[in-house]
Amino acid sequence: MDRFSTDGYIGNSGICASHKRLGGSSDTHSHEFFELEYISDGSGIYTIDGKEYEMREGMFFLMTPINFHSVKASDATVFNVMFSEKVCSAELLARCFDTNGGIAFEVLPEDKAFFVSLLSELCREENSADYTANLLNSLLYKSLQYKKQGLPAPSSVARAVIYILRHFREDPSLAMVAAVAGYAPNYFSTRFKEEMGESFKQYLDRLRFDYAKKLLEHTNLTVAQICRESGFDDYPNFVRRFSARFGSSPSKMRKLIKNEKRRHLTPPI
Question: How far is 14 from 128, CA to CA, in rounded Å?
């Protein structure tokens, strides 16, 4: 499983947009940045965190650093935008995502020209930074119309949520994230729980343990490596807490996942 780095794909500009042809398949991977893709034509199977979607004109995918995705048997043309949280509105970006990260939806026929127009503009290399940011924000705002619920957070808490999604592997402290949000730690802690329905620590732990579970499913990393990749530095404590959270140790969880996959792959007699 590959994890694409910020330096290798979006660099100092914070964004890379292209219109390209996809052929064949890609292995399961994740990014250190955010990514959206719009299918302008073609076919294939797009998988996000194990859930499969048909690739066809008008399908829109938006993913965070905690999402694993792959493409299978594709022959399609796509708009691809890889970007940092620094080049768009954190409030809009946070409201676009569900609890578990990425989203997928099919754009209505009457909106397709609008999406294609914005994405085509984003692909122009001569755009200024401000113009690019406005285009991306417009795209995110339009995407919100396809969600039944958004994150009703003020911009300060939204900045914190996006920061955590991007930096959860680095074990960010409450004080550090509060500073990003522009609040004193105690006040931020109260505001975060009011807006998110769980404490800062509960949110960070859930994100990291869910990510660890995805690593068990989608990679061949050892449990010790997964512990570190998920932002934990105490291996015995990680195993103990993982077991308590999911009712199974990481090793047993991996076996269960593999057995379940085999069961689905084995044809009935």
Answer: 12
Query: What ranges do the domains of the chain cover?
Result: 2-144, 170-261
- Joined together, the tokens standing for residue 14 give 């914070």
Cβ 93 vs Cβ 143: under 8 Å: no
At residue 151 the predicted structure's pLDDT band, cuts being 50, 70 and 90, is very low
What does the alpha-carbon distance between residue 10 and residue 122 come to, in Å, rounded to a whole number?
14
Residues 235-258, mean pLDDT to the nearest whole number: 94
Residues 8-24: tens digit of each pLDDT: 678 788 999 999 999 88
CATH of domain 170-261: 1.10.10.60
Q: Considering the chain, what is the average pLDDT of its residues?
A: 88
10 Å CB burial of residue 268 (0-12, 13-18, 19+) is exposed
Alpha-carbon gap, residue 222 to 249, rounded angstroms:
13
Please compute, for residue 87, the number of CA atoms within 13 A of its CA located in the half-sphere on the CB side: 26
Fold of 2-144: Jelly Rolls (2.60.120)
- The whole-model pTM stands at 0.84
